[in-house]
Structures are given as structure tokens and as C-alpha cells.
Design brief:
This protein is an all-alpha fold. It contains four helices and no strands. The longest helix has 16 residues.
């Protein structure tokens, strides 16, 4: 079984080489964000529908840009 540290170093290297991500971008991304990018590159459709207008409005209220 691969350890977290080994897997993360391998994934960080791949994200840099394939996606052009810097280490800061890689470590700032969530596993879901990385998985979404990998799915797109693999030609798979998105597993989650984009948010609707009501969801976006709620998010804007909760996280105003100040």
C-alpha cells in the first residue's frame, strides 16, 4: 500500500508536469478539484451538475467579495 507522503509527491509531480500547476496551486487544491480536472482530461463527463442561479446567489451571500 502506498503511503500518503509517497502518493502526494507523485501526484504533485504529475500535476506540475501535466497541468502546469505550481506546488502552491497543487497544495491549495482540494482532492475534488484535482479529481475534476483529471476526469476532464480523461474525457469523462462531469459527475456533478453546475450550480443553478439560486445556489450561486446563496454562495454570494455567504461569501461576499467584500
Amino acid at each position: 500500500m502506498e503511503r500518503f507522503a509517497e502518493a502526494s509527491v507523485r501526484l504533485a509531480g504529475l500535476a506540475g508536469a501535466v497541468l502546469g500547476w505550481s506546488p502552491d496551486v497543487f497544495w491549495g487544491a482540494t482532492p475534488a478539484e484535482l479529481a475534476a480536472v483529471v476526469r476532464v482530461l480523461a474525457g469523462e463527463s462531469a459527475a456533478v451538475a453546475p450550480p443553478d442561479a439560486a445556489t450561486i446567489a446563496r454562495l454570494q451571500e455567504v461569501f461576499p467579495d467584500g
